[in-house]
């Protein structure tokens, strides 16, 4: 099966956009990811999938903690920044939640402690036990077919 065919098929799944953050030795690290999902209600578990070549992989292995920042529709620039697609990094200010750096204005900030990891193919899945949650109102930033999208609000 052709790699591009697989990528195109997976791109047909509309998803939200997250930025995964962690901190190691006082330095904040982050990366854009749409490979995120909830796993369990009891206990509260989520999973993020990190590519083996990603710098973030070693940072999460070291810290054993991460935060998931679910981006709002006005945070596309942050998504692009943490995806490494902006040559000059933008100045990003962080809040703190349960000791971890989180992005201001995100729809949800979820902090996690790594409880397990699985290497599958060219990614590592980090299963995290949720330790804290902060919510904000707003609309989500979405990704579909290789492009950023937002929800269309329908009048009823």
Q: Can you describe this structure?
A:
- With 156 residues, this protein is α+β, with helices and mostly antiparallel strands.
- The longest helix is centred in the middle third of the chain and has 9 residues, at 55-63.
- β2 and β3 form a beta hairpin.
- The mean pLDDT is 94.
- It starts with a helix and ends in a 6-residue tail after the last strand.
- It is globular.
- The protein contains 3 helices and 12 strands.
- The strands form 3 sheets. It has a 7-stranded antiparallel sheet. Strands 1-11-12 form a 3-stranded antiparallel sheet, with no helix packed on it.
- The protein has one domain (3-150): Electron Transport, Fmn-binding Protein, Chain A (Pnp Oxidase, Chain A, Roll).
Number of strands: 12
Main sheet characteristics = 7 strands, antiparallel
Distance linking N and C termini: 45 Å
Number of domains: 1
């Amino acid at each position: 099966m052709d790699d591009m065919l697989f990528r195109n098929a997976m791109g047909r799944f509309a998803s939200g956009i997250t930025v995964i953050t962690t901190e190691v030795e006082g330095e904040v690290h982050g990366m854009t990811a749409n490979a995120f999902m909830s796993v369990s209600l009891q206990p509260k578990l989520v999973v993020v999938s990190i590519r083996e070549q990603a710098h973030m992989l070693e940072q999460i292995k070291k810290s054993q903690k991460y935060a998931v920042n679910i981006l709002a529709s006005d945070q596309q620039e942050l998504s692009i920044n943490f995806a490494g697609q902006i040559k000059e990094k933008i100045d990003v200010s962080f809040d703190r939640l349960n000791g971890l750096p989180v992005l201001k204005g995100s729809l949800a900030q979820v902090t996690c402690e790594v409880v397990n990891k699985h290497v599958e193919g060219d990614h590592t899945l980090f299963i995290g036990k949720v330790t804290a949650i902060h919510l904000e109102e707003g609309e989500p930033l979405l990704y579909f077919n290789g492009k950023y999208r937002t929800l269309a609000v329908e009048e009823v």
